[in-house]
Amino acid sequence: MAARTAFGLDIGGTGIKGAVADLATGELASERIRLDTPQPATVDAVLDTAEQIVARAAWDGPVGCAFPGIVKHGRVGSTANVDGSWLGVNLAEQLASRLARPVRAINDADAAGVAEMQLGAGRDEPGVVLVATLGTGIGSALFTDGHLVPNTELGHLELDGANAELRAATSARKREKLSWEAWAERLQRYFDHIDRLFSPDLIIVGGGVSRNAERFLPLLSLPQRIVPAELRQNSGIVGAALIGA
């Protein structure tokens, strides 16, 4: 029997990715297509790019879409890393209209978390699990006994007097040309704050930088286990595919 597959779109602050995902293994079942996120990332510009990706993939089924902000019932509730024109827009309805097929939308970190909890590093993990995605910003997905607490947006906690993601996201490391050691010091303070608030049993670190987990995770000292995402930079695509199937 052929593996069950679905299409996932992952809209990010710097790139928009899409691929067909195998829902049993989490592996990509097609080419991973990536286009730069248009700047400014207005509604029409982002939808145009998403439509191009789905067309290039020649996919004709339902689509799941991950978005870098709060998403409730398909509607966007925050716009930290995209254009402010997105606020209040029903992403699921707008993209479904463009693609002429069903679309379900979810916060991007929540999508990555769903993928990791079902098919990755969080499989069968009890208790409180935090999935933190480090990229343009810091996304968070919080789970208790496998159940998602949606739209936590813990990248906007305060760190050193500023929004945490402005200080500790991967983009901050690149922008300020921080060494791995200097960046790890900021991550340490961020995860210490997370620990005081939520006492997670496990922290899973995702985003593209998880490919280099050996460069910074060993520098952190935390009371709980902290591990890289198994699906790495594809977690968002796979999670979107899972919720869109």
Describe what this molecule looks like in 3D:
The mean pLDDT is 95. α1 crosses α2 and α3 (108-119) crosses α8. 33% of the residues lie in helices and 26% in strands. It has eight helices and 14 strands. The protein has helices at 43-57, 91-99, 108-119, 164-168, 170-175, 180-198, 213-216, 235-244; strands at residues 5-11, 15-22, 33-36, 63-67, 71-72, 75-76, 103-107, 128-134, 138-144, 147-149, 158-159, 162-163, 202-206, 225-228. The chain folds into two domains: 5-110 and 235-244, ATPase, nucleotide binding domain (Nucleotidyltransferase, domain 5, 2-Layer Sandwich); 124-230, ATPase, nucleotide binding domain (Nucleotidyltransferase, domain 5). By secondary structure, the protein is an alpha/beta fold.
